[in-house]
Structure formats: C-alpha cells, structure tokens
Design goal:
The chain is an alpha/beta fold and 437 residues long. The chain is built from 15 helices and 14 strands. 32% of the residues lie in helices and 17% in strands. β13, α14 and β14 (410-413) form a beta-alpha-beta unit. The longest helix is centred in the middle third of the chain and has 22 residues, at 233-254. The two termini are 35 Å apart.
C-alpha cells in the first residue's frame, strides 16, 4: 500500500477525484508496496486502481489516459530500508548526540540508490528485491563495494552475514543492470592488495561498472566503533597513485578515467586535483568526486563577467579542508575580477571535531561565532551546503538566528558567482537563498 500526500492541480488524479490520504492498494491486479511499484506498474496507459478512501471505503478507479500524461500524484515518503551492517567508519555512528532524529537513520536502500543516487551496500537485499531490480531495470545503481574480497568486506561492514558482493553484482549485471561503485578505504583493511583485487574485479565487469571512486575513511571525534589506523598524507598519496594508475589504463583502453580519487583524498594527500576533463560527466560529484575542480572551473569561466564591486569588503567562511588549500587562490582570483576585498575566515568544526574538515558540515554555532564581533564587512558568504532545504544547519540552528546574531548580511553561496552576480545587480535581499521565510 502507498498513500497519496498531494494531488497536482489540473492533473488526471484531480480529474478523477483522488484525494490526499487515499491508500493505493493495487494497479491492474498487482499489489502496490512502495513508490517503485507505483511508478513502474503505473506506467501503463490503461489502469485499474484499487484504493481505499481516507474514510476507509474501498473504491476502484478505471483510467485511460493520454499516452505519457503524468498522473499528478505525490506519495507520502517511503519508509526507508535500514542498514544491517555496523561499519566501523559509519558516519551516523560518528554523529554527536542531540541532533535531529532523522540524521541518525542508517539507511541502506537499493530503491533510494536508484532513485536518488544514495550509495547502498546491498547487504540487506532479498531474493524478491533482486527480482524487482531486474524486472524494473533499476539501473544504474550506486553500490558501496568497499572490497570485493568477501572476508575483507565482512570485516569492513562488521557484519558476518554480509553476502558475496561479487555474486550479487554478477546476477545484476547478467540482468542488464549497470552500477557505480565506491570504496571507502580504511588503511590496513582494504587498501593495498585488497584494493587492487577490488579494482581488478570491478574492471572485469566491463561497461557494467560505470565508475569507481576511492574515498578516504572520514571520522569524527564521535566515531566510537573505529579501531583502524587514521588516514594520513602518505597513505592518501599511495591511494592517489593507485587511482591514477588505474585511471591511466582506463583512459588508454576505454577512453575515460573510470576510477576516481575523491576530492578529499587529493586534499589529504596534498596532491594537485585533476583538471575538468578528467572527470568526464562527473558521475560521482555528489560523492565528493570532482566538486572542487568543477568549482574552480566555474569560477575561472564565470569571474570575467562578474560585476565590479570596488570598495566592498566580503567575509568568506569555510572549513579547514578548502580553507587551507584552494580557497586563498579562489579569493585572489575573485578579487582581481571584482576589485572587492575578500577576507577568508577558516573555521574548525567544533561539533564533529577537527578531523571533519569539509565546509558543508559546519554547524550554525561555529559560523555564528566566526562572524560575531567582526566589523567592517559589507556581507559574509557561507557554504550553502551547510544548510538544509528548510534553512537549518546540522546543529538545528536556523539561518535566521545566525543572521540575527551577526553584524553583517549573510548569504549562503554554492560557487560565489551565484551571490556576487546578484549583489552587483542589486537583486539580493538580506533573507536570500537558503532560507524558508
Ligand atoms: S552501511 Fe555502514 S556506513 Fe552505511 S549506514 Fe550502514 S553501518 Fe553506516
């Protein structure tokens, strides 16, 4: 059963009188268990929908719709499939107490892997899930492989019952499914020979394995399960060598890099990031692969058309990772283009600890503290990724309260160009992007 949350105005659903709260039970005789069933079984143009009205009355809708016309039904969010593992490096296990409840959900859901690109380990996959993936052609999937060696993977996922990922992937690939893979690398556990074996196994899948990312283990001061070694510069550098060696082979034999080191890996290794061509279609940018290069590229392309902001003083808040590497160069570039004066404010993360260095995980309290008592700025730019769609930071501080507590306007920005262009046009309000009003 799936439940209707909203009906789009002017849609077929509105025309037939579907109401929010209605339970959709079956389409053309097949039970509806979740949004995937609704999407795929509902793709026919002739539909018989068994439903139950909000007052409990059963009802049947018979619909003949014009080819391809959307139904206009929005469903209540699915209940997420929970994770069966207990990875030492689990970010959820590394969260401090007291954050909002949904941050503590350890999801591992092949449906969200297909629908939103969330990585899933597939370790909770049942036979009927595999059958659905094949029937609905849920491709590509995003798979946390970590290691193809079964024993190493058992240890990494801290789960003695984890299935053989190679056998799972073979079944899926034989059924026409493609996938992107990631390997979160724990020094001493799945680097070295285990990583070589994993890359070799993934390479053997040919075009079915669309890309593979090498991601350094990321820990917070609360990662209480972790017993491994920390990822240091030397280990990260060896991993970059591995990524580049395999990437070189893939370029020669397949015409694209195929294996990518994450941005964090390059920054930890203090090695220069690859250029924009290396990343092709940026298949794993949501996984932190190529985002910095894309930012640098966007700024290089967009800076010449930015407006003159002569005499403006702009504070830029960021985390230690970019702050101590690429950000000074970015701001010099922007300063030359706009004639504005930028001051970089690098903030250490007090919520997760100093090992969490990315700007997108900065809590509101740290940003407030960094800007309070500072004067002489026309405005401040903060990382837009640190705020959710409702205008809240990870520590539940609303952007509005941070704004109220600091002496300059504050604008969340993804790439500087977004805000600087609007400032020049005079089209930016104090309560700009990133905040629900
Ligand atoms: S698969 Fe591992 S890292 Fe992901 S949620 Fe489960 S325990 Fe955490």
């Amino acid at each position: 059963m799936v439940r209707v949350s909203r009906i789009q105005p002017g849609s077929i659903a509105e025309e037939i009188g579907l109401e929010p709260g209605t339970e959709l039970l079956a389409i053309n005789g097949r039970d509806l268990n979740d949004f995937l069933d609704w999407e795929f079984l509902g793709a026919d143009d002739e539909l018989v929908i068994d439903a139950r009205l909000p007052n409990g009355e059963p009802i049947v809708y018979e619909i003949e719709r014009p080819e391809g016309a959307p139904m206009g039904v929005e469903l209540e969010p699915p209940s997420v499939r929970r994770c069966a593992n207990r990875c030492e490096f689990c970010f959820v296990e590394g969260l401090p107490p007291g954050l909002r409840r949904n941050l503590y959900i350890r999801d591992d859901d092949y449906r969200l892997s297909f629908a939103y690109g969330n990585f899933a380990t597939l370790s909770n996959l049942r036979e009927r899930d595999v059958a659905r993936i094949l029937e609905y052609r849920l491709s590509p999937l995003y798979v946390s492989v970590h290691a193809t060696n079964w024993e190493a993977r058992r240890r990494l996922l801290n789960n003695p019952r984890v299935p053989d990922i190679l056998a799972q992937l073979r079944t899926l690939v034989q059924g026409g499914i493609q996938f992107h893979a990631q390997m979160v690398v724990v020094p001493g556990l799945n680097d070295g020979a285990v990583l070589e074996e994993s890359l070799g196994d993934l390479w053997a899948f040919g075009d079915a394995c669309l890309s593979a990312a090498i991601v350094p283990v990321g820990l917070t001061q609360f990662s209480h399960l972790y017993t491994g070694r920390t990822m240091d510069e030397a280990t990260a550098s060896i991993l970059v060598d591995t990524a580049e060696r395999w990437g070189g082979r893939a370029m020669r034999e397949r015409g694209h890099a195929w294996v990518y080191g994450s941005d964090e890996l390059y920054l930890l290794a203090k090695r220069p990031l690859p250029d924009v061509e290396h990343y092709g279609e940026f298949a794993q940018i949501e996984n932190g692969v190529g985002a910095v290069t894309r930012l640098l590229h966007a700024i290089r392309d967009g800076a010449p058309s930015l407006p003159r902001l002569t005499g403006r003083r702009i504070a830029v808040v960021t985390g230690t990772s970019l702050g101590n590497t690429y950000m000074p160069g970015i701001l010099q570039h922007l300063s030359r283009a706009t004639h504005a004066e930028f001051e970089l404010i690098i903030v250490e993360n007090s919520l997760f600890g100093a090992t969490t260095t990315v700007a997108g995980l900065l809590p509101g309290a740290d940003i407030r503290r960094a800007l309070q008592g500072r004067s002489g700025f026309d405005f401040a730019l903060i990382p837009a990724e640190s705020i959710n769609e409702h205008g809240f930071f990870l520590d539940d501080a609303p952007l509005s309260s941070v704004r109220a507590d600091v002496p300059m306007p504050v604008y969340p920005s993804y790439d500087f160009l977004d805000v600087l262009q609007d400032v020049g046009d005079g089209s930016l309000s104090h309560a700009g992007a990133g905040e629900a009003q």
